[in-house]
Amino acid sequence: MIDGDTLVLADGRHVRFIGINAMELGHDGAADQPYAAAARDALKDLIKRHGGLVRLQPGSEAYDEHGRNLAYVFSPDGEDLGLDLIKSGLAVVIAVPPDVSRLECYAAAETEARNAHLGIWSASSSLLVEAADAHPVTGGFLIVTGTVTESSQVRAGVHLVLDSHLRLWVPTNDLQRFTIDPVGLKGRKVLVRGWVRDYKGSPELDVHASAALFGLP
Predict the structure, then answer these.
(1) pLDDT at residue 214 in the model
(2) For residues 107 and 114, is the Cβ–Cβ distance under 8 A?
(3) 98 preceded by a cis bond (ω within 30 of 0)
């Protein structure tokens, strides 16, 4: 066990869950992120409850950039352990094409956890930040709310800016996964999550589906 979204199997394989992201445990003296230890412990309990056994369902891609096996992780009787973590508010949905087959199911579970203010979505959580207060670091993961103050579309994709501060990028190939044209979100408050990448010296979030970027009431 490494954290709430990564397992080490008895044969030494490292398995990264598809479709979810749990917070990071601290390394090299750094503090744990909020809910990281809770996600790890919840996953331990789930696996223990099923006798220490898991069943893997590989995705479209066998490995991630770190060489970890990518898979959906189930109990022997078919319980989706990633879905369990989302339901408890200890992990969030991520959309990383081409592995998006369970995206709608995961997004529905996250909506329930968010409406119930569980874990990451609780009022006391420090993980959900306003875009104007965000401090994006390349390679970091952010969960952000803010108003879309700029939107534009080019051949390669859609650029959005939240609170005149944080840039978002939606590749054209991923627009099919959106229930609303992202350009039409201008002027609306949205919730978005994703990893920060460097684009021409500036940080921006890559977004690939409506489950990762949507308007708030």
Answers:
(1) 96
(2) no
(3) yes
